[in-house]
Amino acid sequence: MRRILSPLIALTMLFIAPAGLLADEEPPPLGTLPMEEASEGWILLFDGQTTFGWNIKGPARVTDGALVLGGSSDVTAQTNSEFCCFDLTFQYYTPAKGAVLVLNGQRVDLPPSEKQRSWTQVAVHVEMQGEDRIISVAFPADDKPTTAQDLPAQKGAARTPITFQMPARGQLALRDIKLKPLAMKSLFNGKNLDGWYIVPGQKSKFTVTPKGELNIKDGGGEIQTEGQWADFILQLDVFSNGKSLNSGIFFRALPRKFWQGYEAQIRNEWDGYSPDPERAKRKEDRTKPHDIGTGGIYNRQPARKVVSNDKEWFTYTVLAHGNHIALWVNGYQTADYFDNDKDADTARKGRFLGKGAISLQGHDPTTDLSFRNIRLQELPPAKK
Question: What are phi and psi of 14, to 5 degrees?
């Protein structure tokens, strides 16, 4: 057996001492992550309450915070989102043989649980070593040494959904499914605006603060990366220095063109929370965002819940591959969208699948936002 990669060994420690939690602390509410994990880039693939973000064929249900697969026929549960290099952790329970995790066509057996109603912990590490894609799987346990299995190396980078399968008359319960993208490259050095281009003729002011943050004031305006990407996963931290300020993260943006791309909206506003006194009289409801809301795709899909707050750092994750777009805020998935519009030469007019810049928006004279830890992993094309 190939030597288990040291990152995988470190990953198993998450099950023993979860980041951001002390022994006497309450676990985070269902469907959320500890803030420390969210800031490190972890995202939830299952919110413990719904099947949002999944394509499930066969009998399945959500109960007691678990996704339960199985029944009278075979069942496959697959994420709509695809990933390349990552750490994946989850817990499962199954009394029967046949449950598998599938990554890029490779199958990982999930052995029957040893004790009734006991949860088995799994940690998966996927990385590129030269031209080889290596998948290592560990089954850590408190009362015995970690067992592991390495899958045969695959040539070339590839992206894959996370897929679970259970044959008929079996049952597989899953919970706490989360993923952290790896091999992220920094897009902002925290010292200056090297690698960025300010679209001319606009009012926004772009500066690097003494704390190493990229600050945007006034607007409209736009600052773009010199680099361009079509399929990627982007993560960055955002801070709104005012109440319900409007901004956005453009992607697949036309270089040197103003506001021409898909937009991951930034606006921490929802029914019952607003600078507008009339709307503030309503009962607060974060599932009813105003103006798409932070975590929504502007003009396409509103955030299903606004989880971020003004004057607090939050971590934004943007994933795009092919015609699929998914967004997470503080690790909670807020958007899951397939663009089936007609192809166009800009995302402002229709579906645009080509390469484009990442850009940050100054919206209006009230704009005052800061950004840090801007990093990206380019995803390889889908294999035909």
Answer: -60, -30
